[in-house]
Specification:
It catalyses: A + NADH + H(+) = AH2 + NAD(+). One of its GO terms (molecular function) is FAD binding. The chain is of the alpha/beta class. It has three domains: about 5-115 and about 240-310, FAD/NAD(P)-binding domain (3-Layer(bba) Sandwich); about 115-235, FAD/NAD(P)-binding domain, CATH 3.50.50; about 330-395, 2-Layer Sandwich (Enolase-like, domain 1), CATH 3.30.390.30. The chain is built from nine helices and 26 strands. It has helices spanning about 15-30, 55, 70-75, 130-140, 155-165, 185-200, 245-250, 295-310, 375-385; strands spanning about 5-15, 35-40, 75-80, 85-90, 95, 100-110, 115, 125, 145-150, 170-175, 205, 210-215, 220-225, 230, 235, 240, 255, 260, 270-275, 280-285, 285-290, 320-325, 330-335, 340-345, 355-360, 360-370. Strands 1, 2, 3, 4, 5, 6 and 19 form a seven-stranded mixed sheet that branches. The protein has a five-stranded parallel sheet with strand order 8-15-9-10-11. Strands 22-23-26-25-24 form a five-stranded antiparallel sheet, sandwiched between helices. Helix 1 (about 15-30) links the parallel strand 1 and strand 2. Helix 1 runs parallel beside helix 8. It is globular and about 60 Å long.
Length: about 400
């Protein structure tokens, strides 16, 4: 194993998709530059969406099939299981948990997010799904008719519950809403999804707010109202927390719990950039926001990498996000908030839809339900609406569903 060096031209802190994209951009822009990737994860960077998608229903269930081959293809030196505990912008150094000091020319924070857990529950039958290690552990639990409870009816919870139906398990999906994904989707879609999920054998438990888990011979999950669910394992999809401890301790400007960056993804510290989940950026269409999805990780990581190599490229990308839920799928741009005004347009078969999300008459988000190759057009619609060039009455027909 290569020893950690004294100095690198560029140091990337984090081991996800944003780190991989930054290393590729750096290598292309400055092939002779030295790059170190310091990742707390023991596994090399992988395409993480596959952990709840393709690995369950694709050609291979081996997470190594999703390895991004970052080190091999970028020339970067990758150090896994290497936790950075200090970022010192004044001396242009980082310090690892082993006390190693590394000097950098530029540094990138791509530390991502961590899953929320119950603080008093320490049992290997209770897990989240964020890493390759989590995936392998869940695969081991999902066998022999095991009862697995998934808690959380949002993005990750619905994907994990769907994935588990491909295994020999009894799946329960408990969530706090009236229906799964009802914080994002109109009733027309949530009612359809409820039928699909129950049709695949998933037991749905609405209105379940997890209060605690008793760990004995079996797990007993208790809601705030005293309702109990019994399971052999539990997957918690309770959302994520941005990993900004390192940035905060270094004195970087934080806002809304994220790291403030300028249009070039530079932080408040000289020669320190941020990309991916933790970056609070000024979206060209939607204003100040942070985004926790892979499209943003890839695009912002690549822009940051080019800028670390000397470019002055503004980050002007409005990210998309996507999911596949059994035979349905969607892509989306912007805010999908069911509290906003939702205007639906369906195809004749009622199998595909476009939903516009409006606030004060302006489009804030677009859902493309079973509607493909329309993301760029969705961005155009948002831009035109935000600029007052497209009235709500004129939205119908702008993006044909299907």
């Amino acid at each position: 194993m290569t020893d950690l060096g004294y100095r690198y031209d560029h140091v990337i802190i984090g081991g996800g998709v944003a780190a991989d994209a930054a290393a590729r951009a750096l290598h292309e822009a400055a092939p002779e530059a030295s790059i170190a990737i310091l990742s707390a994860d023991p596994h090399s960077p992988v395409y993480r969406p596959a952990l709840s998608k393709d690995l369950w229903h694709g050609e291979s269930d081996d997470p190594d099939s999703q390895d991004l081959r970052t080190a091999e293809e970028t020339g970067a030196v990758l150090f896994t299981a290497t936790l950075v505990t200090e970022l010192c912008p004044g001396s242009h150094t980082v310090v690892t948990a082993r006390g190693q000091v590394v000097h950098y020319g530029t540094a990138l924070l791509a530390t991502g997010s961590t899953a929320r857990h119950l603080p008093d529950v320490h049992d290997d039958r209770v897990l989240s799904l964020r890493t390759v290690g989590d995936y392998r552990h869940l695969r081991g639990l999902a066998r022999d008719g095991a009862r697995i409870a998934v808690v959380g009816g949002g993005y990750i919870g619905t994907e994990v519950a769907a994935a588990l139906t491909r295994t020999d398990t009894q799946v329960t999906l408990a969530h706090s809403g009236r229906a799964i994904l009802d914080h994002m989707f109109p009733v027309s879609i949530t009612e359809h999804l409820e039928q699909v999920y129950t049709g695949h054998g998933i037991t749905l438990v609405p209105g379940f707010r997890l209060a605690g888990i008793e760990t004995g011979d079996e797990l007993v999950l208790r809601s705030e109202t005293g309702e109990e669910l019994r399971a052999d394992a539990a997957v918690l999809g309770l959302g994520a927390e941005l990993s900004t401890t390192l940035a905060g301790a270094a004195g970087l400007d934080l806002e809304r719990g994220a790291v403030v960056v300028d249009p070039y993804l530079r932080t408040s510290a000289p020669d320190v950039y941020a990309a991916g989940d933790i970056a609070l950026f000024d979206d060209a269409l939607l204003g100040l926001r942070h985004v926790e999805h892979v499209d943003h990780a890839q695009a912002s990581g690549a822009t940051a990498g080019r800028n670390m190599a000397g470019a002055e490229e503004a980050y002007e990308h409005t990210p998309l996000f996507f999911s596949d839920l059994f035979d349905d799928g969607y892509e989306a741009v912007g805010r999908l908030d069911a509290h906003l005004e939702m205007r639906e347009e369906w195809n004749e078969e009622h199998t595909a839809a476009v939903v516009h999300y409006l606030e004060d008459g302006a489009v804030e988000g677009v859902l493309l339900w079973n509607t493909w190759d329309a993301v760029d057009r969705a961005r155009e619609v948002i831009a035109a609406s935000q600029q007052g060039e497209l009235a709500p009455a004129d939205l119908r027909g702008q993006i044909p569903p299907g």
